[in-house]
Amino acid sequence: MVTRDDVARRAGTSPAVVSYVVNDGPRPVAAATRARVEAAMVELGYRPNLVARALRSARSRTIGLVVPDSTEAFFTELVHAVERAAHAEGVLVLLGNSGFSRRQEQRYVQALAGMQVDGLLLVQAEVADPVPPLDLPGVPLVYLNHRAPRGVAAPSVVLANRRGGGLAAEHLLAHGHRRIGCLTGDARSGPVADRARGCAAALHRAGLEPGAVLRTGLDRHTTRAQVRDWLAGPDRPEAVVATADGLAVDVLSVAQELWIRVPDDLAVTGFGATAAGAHTWPPLSTVGHPLEDVGRAAVATLAAVRQGAEPVPDRVLDVAFVARRSCGCRPRPDERHIRRLGSDESAVRSSGGANGQR
User: Fold this and answer.
1) Backbone dihedral region of 22: left (phi > 0), alpha (psi from -120 to 50 degrees) or beta?
2) Region labeled Disordered — which residues (predicted)?
């Protein structure tokens, strides 16, 4: 086994200097010396004992992240954003998928805590099952995309979900739609439920009764069947606020199967501002916040909790409406009141009307 002494001899320095390079301190190392040590480590195949280093420093330089399903576009992009933010801080991310199972979620949380991670980011599954109390003494915890359960003293990093649901409904109202339906999940609390409440509140402010609400579960096959029955029925809405981009993509797909033209016969908006939404046909109008910012906010909040100086407040990130064709817009990115969020999309921060012509 290659040791630090071997690396030191090859690099022409002391084992202490090798330790400073491996641990990035506590003393500085000249750039030329660091380069020699790193080259010797590669040449000899030296691998630091990260477990021993963590025991000595009381830091593992790892964090745990639990999400419901990293194959779903929103969670895929969120995971990558957290990884990039953590990597910028020299931290690795250990990932667990709960599969929308409260039991599996708890198992991952306990297992990651047992691995002596420096902290945990928990994207709680939005299911109707009760939330058992977490016993994580000494492990910093931040709830991501979902507020902490009542009675849990942990901060959260969330989107302005209720406001975002209202933005989507107000935008469709500005297009002249009045029969606006909402496609949402079956959980009565959480981010998706908050978006549905924001949609209903916007319709109420406009003097309209909330349109048909379709609540669906987690199985995509079942969801598509429910959406097909909804859109094929006599009371089909003329516009749909979907509370997640994945649900909106199901609407677009089913509409194509039923020869329903989007946006001429049916306007559709999503929530999440995922990259995949820009590549549907028609491109999906959606609501969201750049997930790179969400990842940075999550990692920074977890670091603040770990420092433990004072209670860390919740972070609520504002959202914007991203106007594309599925709602009837033809975005004009040269207009001054539009803020660019990407190379092919525009964000309307105000709720003041549809941008473009139907």
Assistant:
1) alpha
2) 339-358
Q: Are 22 and 54 in contact (CB under 8 A)?
A: no
Strands 213-216 and 180-185: parallel
- Position of tokens 């942990």? 154
Could you check whether the bond before residue 133 is cis, i.e. omega within 30 degrees of 0?
Answer: no
DSSP letter at 285 equals B
Helix (H), strand (E) at residue 171: helix 161-174
Domain architecture of the chain: domains with CATH? 62-159+292-317 (3.40.50.2300), 161-289+319-348 (3.40.50.2300)
Closest residue by Cα to residue 241 from 265, 283, 269: 269
Can you tell me the mean pLDDT for 332-350?
Answer: 40
Distance CA 347, CA 358 (A): 18
Residues in the chain: 358
The model's pLDDT over 249-259, given as tens digits with 9 standing for 90+, comes to 999 999 999 99
Residue 114: per-residue pLDDT:
83
| DSSP class of 206 | T
pLDDT tens digit string along 12-65? 999 888 888 877 677 888 999 999 998 998 888 887 765 555 545 455 689 999
The pTM (predicted TM-score) of the whole model is 0.77
Helices within 183-235 (DSSP H only): 191-205, 220-232
Long-range Cβ pairs for the range 3-11 (8 Å, 24+): 3/46, 4/46, 6/44, 6/46, 7/37, 7/40, 7/41, 7/44, 7/46, 8/37, 10/40, 10/43, 10/44, 11/36, 11/37, 11/39, 11/40
Amino acid identity at 42: V
CA distance 262 to 266: 5
